Task: structure prediction
Amino acid sequence: MFDSYLENTLRFHDEKCVSCLRCTEVCPHGVFVQIDDRIICAHSTRCMECGACALNCPAQAIEVKSGVGCAWAMISAARAGRDMDEGECCCGGERGSCCE
Ligand code: SF4
Ligand code: SF4
Result:
């Protein structure tokens, strides 16, 4: 059975990665990290499937099925009993983020 706390649709093809660092810059949850001159998918279970990394990767090294909007904003709104539009995302909507 699919367990969303342990699994998600994020797939990293490290053989395609050109170490441009964009995924480390745009991911609001620090899923990708740089170790020496390599990028690794260090915290895949943190992924909320916003799609920002795949959208910004110039080497198509990342796949993720996104499309639900910002999951963090949805959760935040649900916890506060508000509409999705009133949810707050922790990424702050900075340039290149999922909320840009
Ligand atoms: S889909 Fe979003 S949360 Fe998941 S790794 Fe990519 S940028 Fe990070
Ligand atoms: S954005 Fe793509 S090519 Fe750039 S470091 Fe991340 S996975 Fe590698």
